[in-house]
Amino acid sequence: MVALNQSQSVLITGESGAGKTESTKKMMKYLAALAGGTGMEDRVLQTNPILEAFGNAKTIHNNNSSRFGKLIGKCGGVRRLPIYFNRGHSICGALTHTYLLEKSRVAHQQAGERSYHIFYQ
């Protein structure tokens, strides 16, 4: 990104339970570590546990299954960097949109599954 001064995109896709959520978290931690400095990095990373509490649940296949979609970096129909960097290459902000929350899970779960983590904290 820095060498070419161009925006980059990363698409993380895969089957259920493949590790998409964990891969995304590791990628964001790596970018934050690379950027260094302003304290904004920690604030961006701290959004993950909040989103997981409200949008992840225990299923029969995965104890921390994402039950929603997450798009990081789309604003007003214009695709932008998921994590915003200033001229000094430090993180200065981020944008996250969630969609397709599995609303039925609030009232009903299959045997051996749970509702969203937030209801058990």
UniProtKB/TrEMBL annotation:
It comes from the Eukaryota. ATP binds at residues 14-21. PROSITE patterns: MYOSIN_MOTOR. One of its GO terms (cellular component) is myosin complex. Keywords: Actin-binding, ATP-binding, Motor protein, Myosin, Nucleotide-binding. One of its GO terms (biological process) is actin filament organization. One of its GO terms (molecular function) is actin filament binding. Residues 1-121 form the Myosin motor domain. Belongs to the TRAFAC class myosin-kinesin ATPase superfamily. Myosin family. PANTHER family: DILUTE CLASS UNCONVENTIONAL MYOSIN, ISOFORM C, MYOSIN. This is Myosin motor domain-containing protein.
